[in-house]
Each structure stands twice: as C-alpha cells, then as structure tokens.
C-alpha cells in the first residue's frame, strides 16, 4: 500500500511542476489500473482545504469543487470518505467551516445522541437542522 | 460516476484522471511554489483568521 501525501494531489490538480506532476499522474494511473494500492488520510483532505481556501484564496464553490474532485478519485482509499463527502455537503450548504461540518458528519455517522458545543453558531445550526437525536 | 441529464454515467478512472489533471487554475505567481511551505502558510493564515 502506498500513502499519498497532500503535495501529490496538489501537483496533480495544478500541473504546475512537470516532474512532480508526472510522478503524481503516473502513480494515480497505476492506482486506477489496480497495479498499485493507494490510500490517504482525512488530514490530507483538510490540508487540501486549508491550502486552497487560504493560500490560493479560492472561493467556497471552487474549494468545494476541488474537494469533490479529490474525493472522486475512488481508487484512492480514504477510510472516512463517506463522512468527508457528507462534511463537504454540509460545508457547501451552510456558513460552517469544514472542520465543524466534519464534526457534524462524524457525529451523525457515529449515531451520537447529542452534539454538545459552546460554539453558538454551530449550536444554532444543529438546532435549526434538527441534528439532535432524542 | 456522474449524473448527466438524469442518468448515471460511469466513467473509467483513467478518463477521470485525464479530466482532473491540471484542472485547478491558480495565478502565475503562485504556480510552482513549495507546496509544503504553502500548507504551513495556509494553516497559519487560516487559523490566525480570528474568532468565528
């Protein structure tokens, strides 16, 4: 199994440094063909989010698109793919950041009975969207 | 897999790679920067953005 770090995804999406882009692309193609087993972590997805939303100053719809593109590489195993996809959905349709959106998606997946927080904005969102279980 | 005019379209993974490769555009001055340094700057800016 081969772990894919953030910079591989970014070089592949940007195609800005030929040597690194080709290395990333070749690896992804090998993964797509089933010649190599590739995986990455939730943190890598968050680094992609921080990078494009902050450093590259992408708009929210653009960031959502980039995250969806990354998640669509289904031959790359991401243990929490389903949770992250849900988090991106919440992030897209709310004023929450991806971290809070992830925590909601995670709590839903884990069938949490309650989501307790002192964050008023998050709490309001949870109440409004009936995320509390009874 | 994508939805097109109400139908589910299955795409080979290699076609997806072709489609996504170089699909994100950034300004010229930000092309080719050290990604790991950029991630550090991004985290610093992102988490230093103040109270929500």
TrEMBL record, chain A:
PIN domain mapped to chain residues: 2-124
One Pfam family of this chain: PIN
Gene3D superfamilies xrefs: 5'-nuclease
Alphabetized InterPro entries for the sequence: PIN-like_dom_sf, PIN_dom, PINc/VapC_TA
SUPFAM superfamilies: PIN domain-like (SSF88723)
Domain of life: Bacteria
PANTHER family (alphabetical): RIBONUCLEASE VAPC13
Official protein name in the record: PIN domain-containing protein
Organism: Candidatus Woesebacteria bacterium RIFCSPHIGHO2_12_FULL_41_24
Lineage, top ranks: Bacteria, Candidatus Woeseibacteriota
């Amino acid at each position: 199994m081969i772990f894919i770090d953030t910079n591989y995804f970014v070089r592949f999406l940007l195609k800005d440094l030929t040597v690194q882009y080709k290395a990333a692309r070749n690896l992804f193609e090998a993964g797509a063909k089933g010649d190599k087993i590739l995986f990455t972590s939730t943190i890598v997805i968050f680094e992609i989010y921080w990078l494009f939303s902050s450093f590259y100053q992408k708009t929210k719809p653009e960031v959502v698109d980039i995250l969806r593109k990354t998640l669509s590489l289904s031959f790359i195993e991401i243990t929490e793919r389903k949770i992250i996809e849900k988090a991106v959905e919440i992030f897209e349709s709310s004023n929450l950041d991806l971290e809070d959106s992830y925590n909601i998606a995670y709590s839903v997946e884990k069938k949490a009975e309650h989501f307790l927080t002192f964050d008023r904005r998050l709490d309001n969102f949870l109440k409004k969207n009936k995320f509390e279980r009874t | 897999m994508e939805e097109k005019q109400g139908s589910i379209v299955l795409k080979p993974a290699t076609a997806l790679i072709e489609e996504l490769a170089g699909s994100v555009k950034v300004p010229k001055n930000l092309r080719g920067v050290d990604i790991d340094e950029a991630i550090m700057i991004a985290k610093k800016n992102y988490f230093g953005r103040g109270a929500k």
